[in-house]
């Protein structure tokens, strides 16, 4: 197709492929943080694509995205493997999240976020209900939606991307154990304390609530023990 000089041609196919890549990435990330995809095992793009009912290409692109983020590594001629998470990794991720998210909620508490209150409460309620139901799939989605949606209100896309990547790198293996022990509900209820502090315009309390919540990254959420 001929176009005027400098005019871009947008094809529909790459957009559809990108959407499939993003969908595959979301599913794989969820399986990672839920501990369903574990270090030591090798996963092929073709095998994962078969499970997802899609072609190899978007799954391979999704896995390479995770490789670039340091979450997975390539095993030549075999597939992809989750990189192990060490105590040092957890210490570094926790430190970075505190450095990013605590100042972020301080800033949010200085803004009028009333029009977004119900959206954020909806994510928090869905997260708590999922914790009560021990539904890890819904819990992880709602927890991600709460945190990233709230950070997104600062209109800093790089901040959201960095936190999203750091969340993936911790792989919250301990969640299933917490759910079995009935402790996940208490953890999810912390979202309401954090949100109340932000909406009340109390930056110091918001910072304290976020600091307390992030302590789980280096504590019970990071338990990589046997959860069978």
Task: Outline the secondary-structure elements.
Elements: H1 12-33, E1 42-43, H2 45-52, H3 56-68, E2 72-75, E3 79-82, H4 87-109, H5 117-133, H6 136-152, H7 157-170, H8 175-180, H9 184-199, H10 203-214
Antiparallel strand pairs: 1-3, 2-3
Textual characterization of the structure:
With 228 residues, the chain is mainly alpha-helical. It folds into two domains: 12-82, Arc Repressor Mutant, subunit A (Orthogonal Bundle), CATH 1.10.10.10; 87-222, Four Helix Bundle (Hemerythrin (Met), subunit A). The protein is 65% helix and 4% strand. It has helices spanning 12-33, 45-52, 56-68, 87-109, 117-133, 136-152, 157-170, 175-180, 184-199, 203-214; strands spanning 42-43, 72-75, 79-82. The model is unreliable at 1-16 and 224-228 (pLDDT under 50).
> What's the rounded overall pLDDT mean?
84
Radius of gyration: 19 Å
By secondary-structure content and strand pairing, the structural class works out as mainly alpha
Give the DSSP E fraction (strand runs of 2 or more residues): under 5%
Low-confidence stretches: 1-16, 224-228
Query: Strand count, sense and closure of the main sheet?
Result: 3 strands, antiparallel
Q: CATH topology of the largest domain, anyone?
A: Four Helix Bundle (Hemerythrin (Met), subunit A)
Please give the domain count: 2
Which features would summarize this protein structure in a list?
228 residues; mainly alpha; 65% helix; Four Helix Bundle (Hemerythrin (Met), subunit A); Arc Repressor Mutant, subunit A; 3-stranded antiparallel beta sheet; globular; single chain; disordered N terminus; disordered C terminus
